[in-house]
Write a structure and sequence with these properties.
About 25% of the residues lie in helices and about 30% in strands. The chain is α+β, with helices and mostly antiparallel strands and about 190 residues long. The longest helix has 12 residues, at about 120-135. It is elongated, with a radius of gyration of 19 Å.
Amino acid sequence: MPLDKYSWTDRYGWLKDRYGISWQLGYGDISRIGQKISPVLLFTNEVFGKVEDALKYYNSIFKNSSIDRIERYKANDEDVEGKIMHSQFKLDNYVLMAMESSKQLEYRFNEGISLVVDCDTQQQIDFYWDKLTNNGGQENQCGWLKDRYGVSWQIIPTILPKLLADPSKADRVNNAIMKMKKLEIDKLVKA
């Protein structure tokens, strides 16, 4: 979408940079969102129509979460009336956005973009891992998973950067990570 005035803002544009990353740029009051950069999840193809379900699902998992705004397509818009044109939500007070499109688009969620959840304890890792792989999610290697909508997540212990920064442990920690799906703090510390 070209940089222009739209019904929801004075200035907005949607572009792809030279690395193939999609960006939506908007001009407005940053205090309304509270952060300069917010990930936007576009639900299309096989997950079209599932944004509202995903927002409720994510809000049931993360504390300090809310669904702050939902704008739906109207009858004269270029997509299915009633589906979500744009939404804004918070997970643990971090603002994200989600949209859906019925158009058959070339892209889907994949590991090229993932959401990272930093965990202080094994109990937190277990909780997020179990919740996000529940009902159709997939476990992947090295602390990565896909949830039931195909969104990629990394469930990572906060101690990991310290372990990897220790030259006497880094190789052993990396080798231990490569053998795990869900990361286990005790095994990483003992590596």
